């Protein structure tokens, strides 16, 4: 994995809206090596999808260079780009983009049709790819007869059947549930490492991005951080045993990741460096406790007697987190999830400063007997 297969140099994409200029990409530079699983992560509007489209030759840059497999993408016309994509690039889409009237084999074989590959060879290669992604028993199934995860596996097989140098994946697990998402990501990770395939995945989720060998964080059209952990942080974690190490912690490239087993999430927190590289939501889903996000983001129904409880402390929910309110925050009944504007101090004599996290935990209401 020493040879760069993708080189992006001083890349800009500027849109004109009336008299205004919007910089979707604002001077981006990076390289991706052959055989790397690279994840580009950022929020909506960060520029990640624009970057993916330009690397795939679907959108021209305003300025800069994109060198893929030794060829300058920005210098090619549309006809040349079509030929280049057929020969070098595979795509995995969020919505699968399968032909509903075709079988799994026929869907996977379709890119080979455009390359003029004979039918018998197309079908043999399609069957081989489907077996590789675990769909050997679904060769003659149509998309409507398969689950979302199975359809995405067909999409992965279709992207790989042309033996591309690079596979681009745009939010490939966006339509899948959490369990199927992990299965698909582990499959993609395995294919990259076993076949030496280069894959570039765009996602808004830091946890999903941690499956990559390289994670490029993008914000407002600029790269703010690049993390490298060959083999993928998740793969490295799963290859070790937390029980064999003090405190159940696992050392992974880029930081230490605590892996809770039977202990509470308050004792074992996600500590990937930097913290935002491994979101608290992954811990919350498994251990029923948010350890980082503010109280107002926690999913917990407001109690029916909210008005009677009179919690004026919700006027400043940003000051309270799961940690400041105590490790048993999920058991606390005074959980405000509605907007602060809906709550006022009742009675007026009771003021917000009189309430502290301790009042919340104990249920005491100053001024009431």
Describe the protein in words.
Strand 11 and strand 12 form a beta hairpin. The strands form 3 sheets. A 6-stranded mixed β-sheet has the order 6-7-8-3-9-10. A 4-stranded antiparallel β-sheet has the order 2-1-4-5, covered by helices on one side. The protein has 11 helices and 12 strands. With 369 residues, it is an alpha/beta fold. About 34% of the residues have low confidence. The chain is globular and about 55 Å long.
Strand-helix topology:
Layout: E1 4-17, E2 20-33, E3 37-41, H1 48-55, E4 63-68, E5 71-72, H2 78-88, E6 89-92, H3 104-114, H4 119-132, H5 148-160, E7 166-170, H6 178-195, E8 198-203, H7 206-209, E9 214-219, E10 222-228, H8 233-238, E11 249-252, E12 255-258, H9 280-287, H10 306-309, H11 357-362
Parallel strand pairs: 3-8, 3-9, 6-7, 7-8
Antiparallel strand pairs: 1-2, 1-4, 4-5, 9-10, 11-12
Helix pairs in contact: 3-4, 3-5, 4-5, 5-6
Short description:
The chain contains eleven helices and twelve strands. With 369 residues, it is α/β, with parallel strands linked by helices.
Write down the Rg.
25 Å
Q: Based on the coordinates given, report the CATH architecture of one domain.
A: 3-Layer(aba) Sandwich
Mean pLDDT: 74
State the fourth-level CATH superfamily of one domain: P-loop containing nucleotide triphosphate hydrolases
Q: In sequence order, what are the helices and strands, one letter per element?
A: EEEHEEHEHHHEHEHEEHEEHHH
Order of strands, widest sheet: 6-7-8-3-9-10
């Amino acid at each position: 994995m020493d040879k760069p297969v993708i080189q992006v140099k001083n890349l800009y994409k500027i849109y004109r809206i009336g008299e205004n200029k919007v910089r979707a990409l604002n001077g981006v530079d990076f390289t991706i090596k052959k055989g790397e699983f690279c994840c580009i992560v950022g929020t909506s509007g960060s520029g990640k999808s624009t970057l993916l489209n330009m690397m795939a030759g679907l959108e021209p840059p305003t300025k800069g260079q994109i060198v893929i497999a030794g060829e300058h993408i920005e210098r090619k016309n549309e006809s040349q780009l079509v030929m280049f994509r057929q020969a070098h690039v595979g795509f995995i889409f969020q919505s699968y983009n399968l032909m509903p009237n075709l079988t799994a084999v026929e869907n996977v074989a379709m890119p080979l049709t455009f390359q003029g590959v004979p039918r018998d060879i197309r079908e043999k290669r399609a069957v081989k790819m489907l077996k590789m992604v675990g769909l050997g028993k679904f060769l003659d199934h149509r998309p409507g007869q398969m689950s979302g995860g199975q359809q995405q596996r067909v999409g992965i097989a279709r992207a790989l059947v042309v033996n591309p140098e690079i596979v681009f994946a745009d939010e490939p697990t966006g339509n899948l549930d959490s369990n199927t998402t992990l299965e698909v990501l582990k499959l993609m990770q395995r294919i990259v490492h076993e076949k030496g395939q280069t894959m570039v995945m765009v996602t808004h989720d830091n946890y999903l991005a941690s499956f990559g060998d390289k994670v490029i964080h993008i914000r407002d059209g600029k790269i703010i951080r690049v993390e490298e952990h060959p083999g993928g942080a998740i793969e490295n974690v799963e290859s070790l045993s937390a029980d064999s190490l003090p405190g159940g912690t696992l050392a992974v490239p880029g930081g230490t990741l605590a892996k809770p087993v039977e202990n509470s999430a308050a004792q074992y927190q996600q500590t990937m460096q930097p913290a935002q590289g491994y979101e608290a939501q992954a811990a919350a889903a498994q251990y029923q406790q948010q350890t980082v996000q503010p109280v107002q983001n926690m999913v917990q129904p407001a109690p029916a007697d909210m008005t009677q409880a009179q919690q004026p402390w919700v006027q400043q929910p940003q000051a309270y987190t799961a940690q400041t309110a105590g490790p048993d925050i999920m058991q606390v009944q005074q959980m405000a999830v509605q907007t602060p504007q809906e709550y006022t101090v009742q009675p007026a004599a009771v003021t917000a400063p009189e309430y502290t996290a301790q009042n919340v935990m104990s249920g005491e209401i100053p001024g009431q007997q």
